[in-house]
From TrEMBL:
<dbReference type="InterPro" id="IPR001873">
    <property type="entry name" value="ENaC"/>
</dbReference>
<keyword id="KW-0812">Transmembrane</keyword>
<keyword id="KW-0915">Sodium</keyword>
<dbReference type="Pfam" id="PF00858">
    <property type="entry name" value="ASC"/>
</dbReference>
<keyword id="KW-0813">Transport</keyword>
<keyword id="KW-0894">Sodium channel</keyword>
<keyword id="KW-0406">Ion transport</keyword>
<dbReference type="GO" id="GO:0005886">
    <property type="term" value="C:plasma membrane"/>
</dbReference>
<keyword id="KW-0407">Ion channel</keyword>
<protein>
    <recommendedName>
        <fullName>Pickpocket</fullName>
    </recommendedName>
</protein>
<keyword id="KW-0739">Sodium transport</keyword>
<feature type="transmembrane region" description="Helical">
    <location>
        <begin position="458"/>
        <end position="483"/>
    </location>
</feature>
<keyword id="KW-1133">Transmembrane helix</keyword>
<comment type="similarity">
    <text>Belongs to the amiloride-sensitive sodium channel (TC 1.A.6) family.</text>
</comment>
<feature type="transmembrane region" description="Helical">
    <location>
        <begin position="66"/>
        <end position="87"/>
    </location>
</feature>
<keyword id="KW-0472">Membrane</keyword>
<dbReference type="GO" id="GO:0015280">
    <property type="term" value="F:ligand-gated sodium channel activity"/>
</dbReference>
Length: 503
């Protein structure tokens, strides 16, 4: 050791920049700058990254080092730019929508929930909405002194909850004396009778009692009737279930079906929710609906009469209820709420519509912020689409239904009420068009595995870098560095002891 130390001291004392000095000797005995350069040279000599060994070679011309520095820099820049492109795809376009490998039979999904709402909210034979409106309007215009009775006013303000907004605004309501429970009760009493509206129902080509197929539900469109709907406990949260909202209590639960897995293998053909066994009109739902022309009131809903099929989104409805409560201090009678939340009376109907418009504008403005991105921006409601969902694409065809001629062919004639009130009948058939359909599925376009594989390929192509190369860098910066420093400290201490003894 003495000879080694003496020789090294003589060497570095003659020329401290001598590149022929052994790298390990520089680490052990050299100056800090020499030790640092020796450690870097040691890494370059042993690195598996392409081009690094040329940077650490001794006695290479400076222009060669500059050449390899430029090449190395260009490789790093190109590789980083391409990796950023992959990162952008991974972060902003992570999924791709494709079709399933095989078709799905229609009996694997539930028959859609059909909710039918009569457009005629107040039959004139029960309550003359138009007459009450003109009484109020003429009274406020000093045309007449006749004022509607309290019963007429109560019915008028209740029906106005489901009529066009301009009607209630022109009536100038000056009191909020109709409570939430009264609204629901009166709407049920005023609306057309179920047995006069649903004349005949067929399910899977079998005549059924309509009352056994349809249940009454409260919607923002008034009282409606639903077929094949889930129980309210499976639709709303428990705090939003009020007794007056639960006009129908479904005792069945969807034990044999869920939206992620579908029907269980043990599910029967008569399971709940209902499902069909094939396509075509005979396998679906067929209804014969009725309305009386004498009962039609064109003021409330305009000239369009008949029925519509109703749908709603629970998340957006709950968000609208919360927003309406904040803006108006109350909610619409049909909105989910707890027992302490008040229901808006006739004076707040304008506020209900205004809150709905403001929320739509607010959601629009917040959504525009991230319009250039592929992801959906967080909004006030933030009602995200479900991971697994069922959407029914409807095709509508219509034709005139000459029920009078059909009744004559069957040897029947219209009854006296039909003749007196001018019955208007409609037949509605809802069915699956095809026996199978192709499901769409969202799958990962760039998952973690694909992202790492692409990055690894680019790093290998431009720099020859692998996982072990990264571990190698960490090793030289931690374990190898600590070992060299410890070894250097030990040798420097031995050198100092030798100098003290020879002094």
């Amino acid at each position: 050791m003495t000879k080694t130390i003496t020789a090294f001291k003589e060497t570095i004392s003659i020329d401290s920049d001598n590149d022929d000095v052994d790298t390990k000797q520089q680490i052990k005995y050299g100056k800090p700058s020499q030790a640092a350069w020796a450690i870097l040279s040691e890494y370059c000599d042993h690195s598996t990254i392409h081009g690094m060994k040329y940077l650490g070679e001794h006695k290479r011309p400076w222009w060669e080092r500059i050449f390899w520095i430029i090449v190395f820099g260009v490789s790093i820049y190109t590789c980083a730019a391409l990796i950023m492109n992959i990162w952008h795809k991974w972060n902003y376009n992570p999924v791709i929508v494709s079709f399933a490998e095989k078709s799905t039979p229609v009996w694997e999904i539930p028959f859609p929930t059909i909710t039918i709402c009569p457009e005629n909210k107040a039959p004139q034979t029960i309550f003359n909405y138009t007459d009450t409106f003109w009484k109020l309007k003429d009274f406020h215009s000093n045309v007449t002194q006749e004022y509607p009775t309290n019963e007429e006013l109560a019915n008028f303000y209740v029906v106005s909850q489901v009529c066009d907004l301009h009607i209630i605004e022109q009536s100038k309501p000056d009191a909020d004396f109709v409570r939430g429970v009264d609204i629901i009760t009166r709407l049920s009493q005023i609306m057309p009778a179920f047995r006069e509206t649903f004349l005949r129902c067929k399910w899977r080509n079998s005549l059924q009692n309509c009352a056994n197929l349809f249940s009454k539900f409260i919607t923002d469109d008034g009282m409606c009737y639903s077929f094949n709907s889930l129980s309210v406990e499976e639709i709303y949260r428990q705090e939003g279930l009020l007794p007056e909202l639960m006009l129908h209590i479904e005792n069945r639960t969807a034990a044999d079906w869920n939206v992620e897995d579908g029907y269980s293998s043990a599910a029967q053909t008569t399971t709940y929710p209902k499902r069909v066994l094939g396509p075509g009109t005979k396998a679906g739902l067929e209804l014969l609906l009725n309305g009386y022309e004498k009962d039609f009131d064109n003021l409330c809903r305009g000239p369009v009469q008949g029925f519509k099929i109703y749908s709603q989104n629970n998340c957006e409805l709950e968000c609208l209820a919360n927003f309406t409560l904040t803006k108006c201090g109350c909610v619409k009678y049909s909105m989910p709420r707890n027992a302490t939340v008040p229901v808006c009376g006739p004076k707040k109907i304008s506020c209900l519509y205004d809150a709905e418009d403001k929320l739509a504008i607010k959601e629009f403005d917040q959504g525009v912020v991230a319009a250039s991105s592929s992801y959906r921006a967080a909004t006030t409601c933030n009602c995200l689409p479900a991971c697994t969902s069922i959407a029914y694409e409807a095709e509508i065809s219509q034709a005139d239904y000459d029920y009078k001629s059909l009744a004559g062919l069957n040897g029947k004639s219209t009854n006296e009420k039909d003749k007196l009130y001018g019955a208007k009948k409609s037949r509605l058939s809802i069915f699956f068009k095809e026996a199978q359909f192709l499901t769409s599925k969202r799958s990962e376009l760039y998952g973690t595995t694909e992202f790492l594989a692409n990055c690894g390929g680019l790093l290998g192509l431009f720099m020859g870098v692998s996982t072990l190369s990264i571990v190698e860098i960490i090793y030289f910066c931690t374990v190898r560095l600590a070992t060299n420093l410890k070894m250097r400290h030990k040798k420097r201490k031995e050198l100092q002891n030798y100098e003290d003894k020879t002094a």
